[in-house]
Structure formats: structure tokens, C-alpha cells
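ok trying this again, last paste got cut off
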Amino acid sequence: MDSHRNELIELIERKIITPDILEEAVYHAKLLPNSQRWFVFLNKLSLWIGCIALALSMIFFVAYNWAEFGKFAKFALVEGCLVLSVVAYLILKNDTLLKQGAIIFSSILVGVLLALFGQTYQTGADPWQLFFVWAGLITPWAITARLAVLWLMIIGLLNVSFTLYCDVNTNPLSVIFNTSIDLLWGLFLLNLVSFSLWHIASEKLSWLKNTWAMRLIALISGSLITLLAIMSAFEGNGTSNAAFPVWGLCMGGGYWLYRRKNYDLFMLAGGCLSSILVITTLCANLLFSHDGEFGAFLILAILVIGLGAGAAWWLSSVQKEVENEQ
């Protein structure tokens, strides 16, 4: 579909396709979603929403009827649904939406079962341990199912686990970084490692080549290092200044990876946005310390407009260059 869109844009720019036949050209290029595509989209959306809603309803049902049900009835209910969902995954045909929905539902129920166990027997474990054990238990399922959504779920659970761990324990990174930002550094490193491993594995495992999944992890990692760079612009101590070289390495690595090796306009646009935010913050910190408030806001407005226009021009040039190479 992307190739059809690019060809259509090129024909419009060369004025081969005139405005009076543009609508017909778009129709024949099949760029607009038809009824079949809408049906597939709504089918997938309904399935995922239904799986999540069903798992959440299990939590609410048990919590609302906590006093009425005995502990064995609660465990029987959750474990029975878990067994049924696993059986459904095993008997369904491969590569079907229902099979994927069943394993996702089962993975969520594992967390429900762990929470029920901890609440019933009051083990004294910290909340971070629940999410960490949850991620560990569903890892074999993720390996077996070869489903990118499950791996994203595991990464999300590890992020939550690390965040909760830092609430009750000393962050292991506090020795290196400032205690006010060590949590952000930890989350950034966790997601950066996850992204790197995912990208390396996707070179050999075709089912991991999900562009949207890698973009999501890259978006989280990029947002965290951008936030760290912005914070370091105001803090200005030795440990926080480490964000600038790390941010620069991330931007350089992203440019090499998604411009020179594997072209991805979304990733390049994210890098441009991060650069605009960091440069604007540095200039704002400098201007507000040496200039008047009105003059600083005026210069910043001009700077943002100029950087935005420059980024748009560069992205457009890169896209045309890639199209010509193809």
C-alpha cells in the first residue's frame, strides 16, 4: 500500500493525475479502506477489547464478591477460566485471532491468580515481586506463542516492576546517577536494552518484525532520554550532564539505523522532535538567565518555527531521496 501511495503522489506532483480524476485514481489504487478492510479492523479491535474486558471483569467480579465467596471458590473460578483459555489455545488452529486472544487472556489471568494468591494468604511480598514473577511465568508462553504483543506485555510488566522496586528499595543506579533521576535512567536503560535485543532478534525471527512494536519501544526510550536531557539542562551537575552525550549517541545511532541502514520516516521524525525539544530547552535556559522575558519568548517562538520548518524540509528531502533510490 505504501508503494501505491508513493506512486500516486509522484504522479500528482508530475501533474499526470489532474484534480478532476484524483478521486477515481485514489479509488483504483485501493488507498481508501473498503468494507472488507473495515470488517477486518473491527473484528481485530473487538477481539482485543473483548479479551481485556473479560480479564478485567474477572478481577472486578472476585473483588466485588470477596466476602460472599470462599477462598477455594475464588481460586476455582480463576483457575478454571485459566485452564479453559489454555485448552482453547491448544485446540484452536494456528495463526488465528482467537488463538492469539486466548493466550493473551491466559497471560492476564496469570496476574489475576498471583494477585488473588497474595491477597488471600498475605505472603508479605512487595508489589514489585508480583509483576516480576508475572513476567517470568508468561515468558515461556511468549516463546511458544511467538506473539509480539506478549513480549510487549512482558516489557511493560518489567517496567512496572522496576518502578515499584525503586519505591521500596534503593535504586541500584543511585550510586552512579543523581537520586532524583535514577529511576528515569533505570527505565531508559531497561527499554533501550529491550529495543536492542528486539531489533537484533528480529533479524533472524520474522515474527518479531513488527514495525509498530519496535516503534513503541523506541518511542518510550526516546521520550525518557529526551526528558533526561531536558532535566539536565536545568540541573547542570556532573551526573545529570551525562544525559547529553547519551542523548547524542541515541540520536546518532537512530540516524544511522533508520536513515542509512533501514529507512523509517517515523523514527526520523521522532528524532527531529526530540532534537527540537532539547535545543529549545537549552536556548530557553540561556535566554531567561540573560535576557528579558518578552525578548526570550519572541526568540524562542522564532526558533521553534525555524526548527520545525527545517525538520519538515529535511524529512521531505529524505523521503524524496529514498523514493528516487527505489
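PB: full thing came through this time. The first helix runs from residue 2 to 13.
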